[in-house]
Amino acid sequence: MTEPQPRVLPPAQRPAHAPADHPALPAERIGILLANLGTPDGYDYWSMRRYLNEFLSDKRVIDYPSWKWQPLLQTVILAKRPFTSGANYKSIWNEERGESPLMTITRDQTAAIAAAALSRWGDKVLVDFCMRYGNPSTASVVDRMVKAGCTRILFFPLYPQYAGATSATANDQFFRALMRQKRQPASRTVPEYCAHPLYIEALAQSVERVYATLPARPDVLVASYHGMPKRYLMQGDPYHCQCQKTSRLLRERLGWDRGAIDTTFQSVFGPEEWLRPYTVEHVAELARQGRRHIAVVSPAFSADCIETLEEINGEIRESFLHAGGETFTYIPCLNADPAHVTALMAVIGENLAGWV
User: Fold this and answer.
1) Which range marks the domain in which residue 298 is found?
2) Is the dihedral of CA 102, 155, 164, 246 positive or negative?
3) What is the spatial distance between Cα 272 and Cα 204, in angstroms, rounded to a whole number?
4) CA atoms in the 13 A half-sphere facing the CB of 210
5) Whole-angstrom Cα distance, residue 168 to residue 133?
6) Are residues 44 and 67 in the same domain?
7) Per-residue pLDDT tens for 201-225?
């Protein structure tokens, strides 16, 4: 996709009835702020260390007491993990743009939504994006939007299913950014959209599009979601239930029988039990059971990233093939697909009700 051109906003003006020494003010508009997880600035050691330190120090992600967790993080994990994570990022890095695929795709999504918003609402709205970890930071983009005249901001974490470690921590960072503003904009946060008909439709179309290119139908479709400690489910986090709901609605839209889609969880970290079944183990078990041809889709990710391009297409693919599997098909995330943009615009429009 072509790199989006920066919006040229009208110059700030002094209010008509204000005294001569009154500062000029930008025209009022509504901000739509898309938010994703984040990305390191590079795959070198120090870029990776900064990124991982911010990510793994988030209490929403790792909720162990600081006195127990931080010494381990700072002395052991951050001494080694930046090297391995950096190598993984290097294998998928967009060298042409000098950024990770998540950054590239998020830019493309933002450009597509900005174009659709301009067509629908004109200059009343301003669309931008931020990252929870890394750059562009939430605080910097909120500040930019306020200076551009956004007196109202719709904050949209791009996570179809709600989780404390994704949606909630993104909202936390947004609220912290608002605390720094002298003139706080009115704000709304977009809730999960895991059951939105147009999101399910976009998912189904992505599956159908890839299946139409295959010589034979896979034996099973694995819907692999990012994992979380099982303890979080027991504490009331709705993520697990919403993942199951997404898989069920996708299966129903595709018109498939029960059992045609397996729901699994990936990216296990640490010693405690996480949501099961684990994707990496489940695909190997499928191969041992004689299910030699599978496809994998990632409904929890709005954009392809390290967890899909490297983990699914690397570690998880290898686990399946090593156990005797023959054909492993990865179905890309929805990314900037027109059906996905349509779904996101529908969610935005519903949440802007009364503002535009």
Assistant:
1) 197-331
2) negative
3) 34
4) 18
5) 13
6) yes
7) 999 999 999 999 999 999 999 999 9
221: in domain: yes
Q: How far apart are alpha carbons 206 and 182 in whole angstroms?
A: 44
pTM for this model (two decimals): 0.93
Question: Residue 61 corresponds to which amino acid?
Answer: V
- Tally the domains of the chain: 2
At residue 6, the pLDDT reads 52
Based on the domain organization, do 163 and 213 belong to the same domain?
no
Please tell me whether residues 206 and 189 are part of one structural domain. no
Give residue-wise pLDDT tens across range 269-307: 888 999 999 999 999 999 999 999 999 999 999 999 999
In a domain, 88, yes or no: yes
Question: In this predicted structure, what is the pLDDT of residue 9?
Answer: 63
Average pLDDT over the chain, rounded to whole?
94
Q: Amino acid identity of 224?
A: S
